[in-house]
């Protein structure tokens, strides 16, 4: 199970809870580093996800299939809310979301596949890593300086915070862009991530015309992409240019199309 994921989700949520009382009304309305969203909109996004986790809405075929546009829609629904209303929703729903994710670590349901519209299918226990990624990434990259507008600090990221976020990203990597990303991988590529959250995996081409690429543990290719895991969270979500944060060894032409296309949501 991914108990590290629930621990990371709780820890990053606690960090956000430390930040919230330090933000004033003017700062909540500053543009975040997430394009089109204010700082308060980032919290509205997390609050919306929490509310949907604890009280799932009925299926609606008119909702956007693109996950990013779906998130924009949910944020837009809350743009007329006061800061206090957004924060109240986040405070009310997030503890219940965390408890549900913790319960999802227990058999027999922990390995049950769960489809996340626009993102793929994951074992239920891995949904804790989804939250660990979301809160960590938005807080550290979009809200706080140096990339975000808030001049506030938190303890340096640890392996326990970063590794579960990276685990979700790697689980989602073959699924989120499907054939579009698969088409860019003609030969195996190694992702060599260092620092907190360090891991090494090989991205393998699809084995058939209708298949998708796969991600396997270890290094099994001569072309390698070297980056810190922290930077991976930023550039693999297209928040920062990969060329500023990656070093390629081996055949760069084999890795460049993949890196140009990758966009973890």
From TrEMBL:
The answer to whether the entry has keyword Transport is no
Checking InterPro entries in the record gives: DinB/YfiT-like, Maleyloyr_isom, MDMPI_metal-binding
* Keyword hit for Isomerase: yes
- MF terms per GO, please? isomerase activity; metal ion binding
SUPFAM superfamilies the record matches:
DinB/YfiT-like putative metalloenzymes
Mycothiol-dependent maleylpyruvate isomerase metal-binding domain location, by residue? Answer: 10-138
Q: Keywords in UniProt for this one?
A: Isomerase, Pyruvate
Q: Which residues form the signal peptide?
A: none
The record, for NCBIfam families, names: maleylpyruvate isomerase family mycothiol-dependent enzyme
State the protein's name. Answer: Maleylpyruvate isomerase family mycothiol-dependent enzyme
């Amino acid at each position: 199970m991914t108990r590290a994921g629930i621990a990371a989700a709780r820890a990053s949520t606690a960090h956000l809870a430390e930040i919230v009382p330090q933000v004033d009304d003017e700062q909540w309305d500053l543009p975040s580093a997430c394009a089109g969203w204010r700082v308060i909109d980032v919290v509205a996004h997390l609050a919306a996800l929490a509310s949907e986790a604890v009280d799932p809405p009925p299926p609606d075929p008119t909702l956007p299939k693109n996950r990013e546009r779906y998130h924009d829609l949910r944020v837009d629904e809350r743009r007329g809310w006061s800061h206090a209303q957004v924060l109240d929703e986040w405070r009310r729903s997030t503890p219940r979301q965390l408890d549900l994710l913790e319960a999802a670590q227990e058999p027999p349901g922990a390995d049950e596949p769960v489809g996340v519209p626009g993102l793929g299918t994951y074992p239920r226990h891995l949904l804790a890593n989804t939250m660990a990624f979301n809160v960590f990434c938005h807080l550290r990259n979009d809200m706080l300086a140096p990339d975000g507008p808030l001049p506030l600090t938190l303890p340096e990221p640890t392996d326990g915070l970063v590794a579960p976020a990276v685990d979700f990203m790697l689980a989602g990597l073959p699924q989120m862009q499907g054939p579009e990303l698969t088409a860019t991988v003609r030969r195996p590529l190694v992702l060599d991530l260092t620092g907190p959250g360090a891991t090494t995996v090989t991205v393998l081409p699809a084995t058939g015309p209708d298949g998708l690429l796969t991600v396997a543990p270890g290094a099994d290719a001569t072309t390698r992409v070297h980056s810190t895991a922290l930077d991976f969270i930023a550039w693999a979500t297209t928040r920062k240019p990969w060329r500023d944060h990656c070093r390629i060894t081996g055949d760069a032409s084999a890795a460049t199309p993949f890196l140009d296309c990758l966009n973890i949501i």
